[in-house]
Each structure stands twice: as C-alpha cells, then as structure tokens.
Amino acid sequence: MWSCLKCKAAFPDPRPEPALCAPCFETACADRRILRAGKVDQMLATAGVPLKFRNAAWKMPVFLEPFMKGHRGACLVGPEGVGKSAALALFIRERETRWSEHEGALEKDFPAVWRWLDWPAFVMDVQDAYGQSGEVSANKLLKAAAAAPLLVVDDIGAEKVTEAVGGWLYVLLDHREKWLLPTFLTTNVPIEGPGNIDERYSTRISGRIVGPCDVLKMSGKSRRLKP
Ligand SMILES: [Zn+2]
User: Fold this and answer.
1) How confident is the model at residue 227 (pLDDT cuts 50, 70, 90)?
2) Which of 56, 133, 142, 205 has the most CB atoms lying inside 10 A of its own CB?
3) Phi first, then psi: what are they for 189, rounded to 5°?
4) Residue 12 CA, ligand 1 centroid: distance in Å
5) How far is the CA of 13 from the centre of ligand 1 (A)?
6) Fold of 24-226
C-alpha cells in the first residue's frame, strides 16, 4: 500500500513516481502548465515583445515549425498588416512553452534568452546615445543587442534610413552570423529584386540575411507562406 502525497488516500501497490493518485497528478500537471504559461508571459514582456503582438488570437503559422531548434533564423517579408510580428511573437511563446515543458522548468529557471528590437525605436535610441555621449555608448547599445542569444529585429525599413543606420544594421547582422546566433527579422523591404534591401541601405546586408536565415514571404490575405 502507498498513500497519495497530496490527498493522503491509500492505494494498492505499485506506487507511482511521484506518489500522487491520478486526480492529484492531473491537478498538479494543470497547475504547472498554468504556472509555466504565466512565466512564459513574463518572459515575453521582459524580452520587450509588444503587448499588441503578444495576444494574437491565431495559432503560430506552421512554416515557423522548423525554427524551434538549431541555429537558423528566419526573415519574414511581406506588406504591412499581414501579421509578421504577431507570427514571431506566437513563435517565441510556442518555442518557450515547449522548451519549458520538456525541461520541466518552473519559476526559477526561465533564462532571459530572447530580445525583441522594435527596429525603428531602437534606431532612435542609438541615435540619442550617439548624440549625447558619442560613439562609445551607441556601440554599447548595439553590442548588447547583438549578443542576445535569440534576437528579433522587427520592422526593418520602417525607420528613417541614413548611411549610419545601414552601418548599424550590418554590424548587428554580421555579428550574429559570425557567432551562429539565431536572428528573426521582419521587413516589408524585398531581400532581392527591385528596391531591395541592399539598394535601400547601400551596403551588403542581404548576404547577412540569406546566409543564416530562411527568407519567408507572407502574403496579404491568408497569412500563408509563398514558396
Ligand atoms: Zn491524491
């Protein structure tokens, strides 16, 4: 005989591990799922994922499934409003949830691995830092972002483009490629073809995208992936 750790009821052997009866085990699992979901939410907030994208009502697009593990990143290209940023927010939530379930992670062990850059806002921060205290503090901001284990650079091309901005983007992407750090990008600027990202920044940025990332085109209506 053994007794359940939680409800203390007695049951015939064999004793399960942990020593919980089926209903108590179910409750404990549900509690952990709720706890983890809360922690994942907190993690998304700490990473800087905007609230608007955190609460998307749809499911993570299946084309992001291959990026659950490994070093490859993705670049979502498409017009405004097709859900590129929301897709990445859903992806981060799904990836973290699966990781935490697999690792059995609870409250203490959620490492802050994600960083979300709203690129136009980040560019303004770097410009401010540059204006106030020069190159050193601007570089610090760039380096901190470049070093994030997992990075989202959201809305490339929506900022006011200057030569310096192209240089910063290049430095950021170049560092990530060299250190095999997965990067997830969104942009409405085409990576190749007319009006492409290199023409926009007049520097070899496309090479730092197509090397380490899969370029995924999102279309207007269906959020479906084009080949
Ligand atoms: Zn019980």
Assistant:
1) very low
2) 205
3) -90, 130
4) 13
5) 14
6) Rossmann fold (3.40.50)
* Residues at Cβ < 5 Å from ligand 1 ion: 4, 6-7, 21, 24
* Domain assignments of the chain as residue spans, ordered by start: 24-226
Prediction pTM value? 0.83
Percent of the chain residues topping a pLDDT of 90: 59
Three-class DSSP labels, the chain: CEECCCCCCEECCCCCCCCCCHHHHHHHHHHHHHHHHHHHHHHHHHHCCCHHHHCCCCCCCHHHHHHCCCCCEEEEECCCCCCHHHHHHHHHHHHHHHHHHHHCCCCCCCCCCEEEEEHHHHHHHHHHHHHHHCHHHHHHHHHHHHCCCEEEEEEECCCCCCHHHHHHHHHHHHHHHHCCCCEEEEECCCCCCCCCHHHHHCCCCHHHHHCCEEEEEECCCCCCEEC
pLDDT value at 179 more than 50: yes
